[in-house]
Amino acid sequence: MIAARSSTIARRALRHAATRSMATSNEPLVKTALNDWHQELGGDMVPFAGYELPVLYKNENGGVMKEHLWCRSKASLFDVSHMGQIRWHGKDRVEFLEKVVVGDIAGLSEGGSCLSVITNENGGIMDDTVITNAGDHIYMVVNGATKFGDMEHFQEQMEEFNGDVSMEYLEDSMQLLALQGPGAATAIAKLLPSGFDLKHMAFMQGTDTTLDGIEGCRITRCGYTGEDGFEISMPFDHAVSMASKLVEDPEVLPTGLGARDSLRLEAGLCLYGNDLDETTTPVEAVLGWTMGPPKSRRRVEGGFLGAEHVLTPEGKLQRPSRKRVGIMGMKAPARQGVEIYDSEENKIGIVTSGTFSPTLKKPIAMGYVDAGSAKAGTPISLKIRNKMQTAEITKMPFVPPIIIVYLNKD
């Protein structure tokens, strides 16, 4: 009963996200290199961000609940080829990127990666992105539903930039897999060349490498689950053989988008379009840490689009009128759009993501509330199906991550 409920919630959330991302497009769905492979393994295919991807697998170990718990204890393999992979070239590439994202790109050592956000002229978040200093270029991964809008924005900014920079979109010539879970390192090690020092590869580090003898691959130690893991980029023609090789390991399970969503929510991580949008600043989203700690260069200098709406002239974070928070204590899952009320029944916010946590076996949610009501432990009420349910503001992540990918140090 619990598994069925979790699966239903995941389907509804993904259907909403897919509808939103496809709302202005009549284009046929794009199929990743693994499309037939997914279906052969029982993948239940759904539209998402313009692609056809598995929400779950209908097999012995499939279903959102089982797939989610497998990732928390072993290793899961996700097809995330819908995401946009971009290489930045030119001697002024770092200077340009620091105008369109908030992170300290100049401070990245070779191989170093960071989570950052792309902002508009009002300081609103256009997308979140992982950026890596790849040595002779910058490697960037952006969200699938927003990648074309991101690149249009980049092109507009490049036209106003007086410097040497160019953008190379890898399209679907390169596919992207995410291997996540406590067993991820053991599984990926079997494909890496002998002598590769995986033991000393830190989280948020990336490098070009061969995998299973295949040239032109790249791995980045990062993820979207709160677990250890890797994002693996490889040529289109080798994606099936790579995925097949990985799942030969009995500890590795093909896993769908449904479990990916519940895993990221347990880890307190944002989904663009739900928890982040162009009207939300990094400070409201509690992502001020992506600019660096207090008095760091990026906070002091600003320089990114919309910085004057995010930072004070002294380089401090502006006081937000609302903040992103975690929510627990309700009896029923609170889905996106559920209204949040204080103890005096004043509306103070709205839920942006919610699900039933397979790990905690209880509902969890994320949302925005008035800044004065954002303290952990604050009692609230949620209007779920026209009935008020008591809950309270809580800290995130809901499930302590093995790798600390969620920071709250504002």
Structural topology:
Layout: H1 2-22, E1 30-31, H2 35-40, E2 43-48, E3 51-57, H3 64-73, E4 75-79, E5 84-89, H4 93-100, E6 113-119, E7 125-133, E8 138-142, H5 147-160, E9 166-169, E10 174-180, H6 184-189, E11 206-211, E12 214-220, E13 229-235, H7 239-247, E14 252-254, H8 257-266, H9 297-301, E15 322-328, E16 339-341, E17 347-357, E18 362-370, E19 379-384, E20 387-394
Could you describe the 3D structure shown?
The chain has 410 residues and is α+β, with helices and mostly antiparallel strands. It contains 9 helices and 20 strands. The chain has a 6-stranded mixed β-sheet, sandwiched between helices. Helix 3 (64-73) crosses helix 8. Residues 1-24 and 404-410 have low confidence and may be disordered.
How much strand content do the residues show?
Answer: 25-35%
Q: Give average pLDDT, whole number.
A: 93
Q: Spell out the helices and strands N to C.
A: HEHEEHEEHEEEHEEHEEEHEHHEEEEEE
The count of DSSP E runs of length 2 or more, i.e. the number of strands, is 20
Helix content: 10-25%
- Cα separation of the termini: 40 Å
Low-pLDDT residue spans: 1-24, 404-410
Radius of gyration equals: 21 Å
Discrete helix count:
9
Computed structural class:
alpha+beta
The rough form would be described as globular
- Major β-sheet profile: 6 strands, mixed
